[in-house]
Every structure is written in structure tokens, then in C-alpha cells.
């Protein structure tokens, strides 16, 4: 199990388009992927749950991944966040 944090660095935060891109990544993995603030974790494969987080720029999110492909899932999620969800800023 991986339990780490990730920072939201894109200009608009985890808005609809960014959440959609995160869903595209998370749904490719069999591992359980949860994201949230502190102890309030939500399913990172559920768009409504992601939007309800209200994670703006500068938010540090907790990321918990558990499963056979957890390392690859973490790598791809970190790449997406580091690339600012491939949005022009």
C-alpha cells in the first residue's frame, strides 16, 4: 500500500476538466485509489467525488493506492499532476 501526498499546482485546481483527466488515468488501474484531504478520502475513480473535494491550486492532497499495479498508478498520477493536467497556463 502506498500512502503519500501530492500537490495541486495547476492554475484552476482540480476542476471538471482536470478531474476528467485524472479519471482517465485512475480507471486504467485495478488498484484501489483514494484521494482527499487528511482522513476525508474519496474514490479517485469517481468524478463527482473528485469535484466535491474542492481542491484548488496549492492544496496538498493525500493519495492512498492499494493493489498489484499501485506503483505504476502512482507514477502516472504524479506525472499528470506535475504536467498541470496538460493545460495551457
From TrEMBL:
Gene3D superfamilies: HPr-like. Its main location: cytoplasm. It is found in: Cytoplasm. GO terms for cellular component: cytoplasm. It comes from the Bacteria. GO terms for biological process: phosphoenolpyruvate-dependent sugar phosphotransferase system. PROSITE patterns: PTS_HPR_DOM. Residues 1-88 form the HPr domain. The keyword Cytoplasm applies. The keyword Transmembrane helix does not apply. Keywords: Cytoplasm, Phosphotransferase system. Pfam families: PTS-HPr (PF00381). InterPro entries: HPr, HPr-like, HPr-like_sf. NCBIfam families: PTS_HPr_family. Belongs to the HPr family. This is HPr domain-containing protein. It comes from Acinetobacter parvus DSM 16617 = CIP 108168.
Amino acid at each position: 500500500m502506498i500512502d503519500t501526498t501530492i500537490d495541486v499546482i495547476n492554475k484552476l485546481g482540480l476542476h471538471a476538466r482536470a478531474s476528467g483527466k485524472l479519471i482517465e488515468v485512475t480507471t486504467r488501474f485495478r488498484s484501489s485509489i483514494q484521494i482527499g484531504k487528511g482522513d476525508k478520502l474519496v474514490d479517485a475513480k469517481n468524478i463527482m467525488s473528485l469535484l466535491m473535494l474542492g481542491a484548488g491550486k496549492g492544496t496538498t492532497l493525500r493519495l492512498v493506492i492499494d493493489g498489484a499495479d499501485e506503483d505504476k498508478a502512482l507514477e502516472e498520477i504524479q506525472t499528470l499532476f506535475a504536467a498541470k493536467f496538460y493545460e495551457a497556463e
